[in-house]
Amino acid sequence: MSRRALISVSDKSGVVEFAKELVALGFDIVSTGGTYSKLKDAGVNAIEISEVTKFPEMFDGRVKTLNPMIHGGILHRRDNDGDVSIAKEHGIVGIDLVCVNLYPFKETIERTDDFAEIIENIDIGGPAMVRSSAKNFQDVIIVTNPAKYSEISSKLRFGELDLDCRRELMIEAFEHTASYDSMIANYMNKRFNGGFGDKQFIVGSKVNDTRYGENPHQKGSLYQFDNFFTDNFKTLKGEASFNNLTDINGAVKIASAFGDRPAVCIVKHGNPCGFAIKDTLLDSYKEALKADPISAYGGVVAVNGTLDKDLAMEINNIFVEVIVAGRITEEAIAVFEKKKRIKLFEQDNDYLKIADDSHDFKHIEGGFVYQNSDAVGEDEVSGAKLVSDRGASESEMRDLEIAYKVASLTKSNCVVYVKDSAMVAIGMGMTSRVDAAKCAIRKADELGLELKGSALASEAFFPFRDSIDEASKVGVSAIIQPGGSIRDDEVVEASNEHGMALYLTGIRHFLH
Question: Which of 17, 174, 260, 478 is exposed most, by the fewest CB atoms within 10 A?
Fold first, then answer.
């Protein structure tokens, strides 16, 4: 007894080969519109959908599969005598495999702002067939992923497409339609409600499971938006843990914040413990390490460029757990060959990049908070307002930019000291800003690092002049901060008393 497959796809990659495989396995093919034409042109003996429905496609293709001959063929239960009898009475032929993927809504909204065209690329019949097939997965094989055509035809050929396989395809089908509807709802809310509608859908695709979550008793997985990790994260050695991934994210965001400049950032437990931009990546790493070599042990190093053999040999002098770079040469990989615990990742780009997501969210018990993503504007530092009597020199402005960008990507309360394009001290995650300043100074003193002539940045305003007074004791020469305190005048007065340059950006960058 022949079986019937319905094929109706927008993404037609591999569909001809899949259809031919199904024909060879004894399936009759029913198809629609462009898919039907493509199959017929390729020599596949397909039945046009209107021959089954006894109705032509209507309303410019808006209605073609919404018909009892289609949905009855999918949904009737083969082990239910009543269903089988009703199907027979109405001449409904069972559909045993449905291969559907949906109108390209995402590609349409990326290509045009024409709302009429966007509306026409909202699929109706496709999701209905996918959901019907998934609901009746015990009787109907539902195929939504072109990447699985070969696997499915192979399992069919060898009789291996069992109930477990059908169940997995069912889950994938509901994920497919849920993701599609979420994308449409989010787009409509973005277009008409500023992106903050009554419902917010966050949809990611699994890249891989991690060995465990933050701790060994927790499960964890990596999910991605728009194939970012698939396209921009290549494992060369080791396996990224859950905690590695969050640290890598922090390190890459900082290192990549400086365009094509040779920046190196060292992160430990989510916080930067070293950063520098020198003439070469090798020199940048050496200077970054000086800020806190103890914390750097077992940390994550982000290299904004190509990691070569010389830099690899320098890093290899201590134990770091993870290195991520734009590229890593074969010679550099060989340097770490004998170190079993080190993990190497590259983005296969000349420089590090981030996904630059438009929105950010954080889980809180019972829900999540959602916001526009934060970033330092291109002219935020260069356009900052000078409020002191003395202005910064060119080199001080470079240091202010580095300090400010690092501070904006570090846990609040935070202060960052930079000298000669290298971070020399940092205090972060403190409940008091003056404590953050004192902590940074104490750490620099313990390491014998010179703060005289350094630039200081804070991600939020200084509420009192005490932080300025502390900074003056170690010779800070320039400060940049958002401003906005009711005591800004006192802070400006303190800066002038100590002969410091003080700039206000007017923009706060809390990171909690």
Answer: 260
- For 318-344, how does the pLDDT look when each residue is reduced to its tens digit (9 = 90+)? 999 999 999 999 999 999 999 989 999
Q: Which of 12, 135, 190, 237 is catalytic?
A: 135
CATH assignment of 239-346, among 3.40.50.720, 3.10.28.20, 3.30.870.10, 3.40.140.20:
3.40.140.20
Of the residues 20, 40, 237, 269, which is catalytic? 269
What's the DSSP call for residue 336?
Answer: T
Does this model's pTM top 0.70? yes
Tens of pLDDT, residue by residue over 223-273, are 999 999 999 999 999 999 999 999 999 999 999 999 999 999 999 999 999
- In the annotation, is 269 catalytic? yes
Strand partners, 367: 364
What secondary structure letter does DSSP report for 411?
P
Place of tokens 């982000």: 302
CB neighbour burial string for 396-420, b if at least 16 within 10 angstroms, e if fewer: bbbbbbbbbbbbbbbbbbbbbbbbb
Question: Known catalytic residue: 135?
Answer: yes
Would you tell me how many other CB atoms lie within 10 Å of the CB of residue 491? 25
